[in-house]
Amino acid sequence: MKLQTFSQGEPRINERGFIMTATRQQLRDIIDVVDSNELGVLYQVLIRFIPGSVPMPDELEAIRLGRDEIRRGETVGHDEIDWS
User: Fold this and answer.
1) Taking the model in full, what pTM does it have?
2) What pLDDT is attached to residue 5?
3) Is 55 in contact with 63 (CB distance < 8 Å)?
């Protein structure tokens, strides 16, 4: 089985505000080639990506706005803040 490579273009952002660089089918293809003895480990990693609660619309909007600011370079780095 030949696995598709990840896109090198601009990242896509889904309806929940998450950056998507791989398709669900690409992830399924990867899972299909993982040794069955390692599926438990893979499950433990993947389950951590499932949120305990669904974000509210205002939270999704805040995430989108923050990512837009990052994309435009409108953020301040940690090293630029006087933490004392």
Assistant:
1) 0.38
2) 45
3) yes
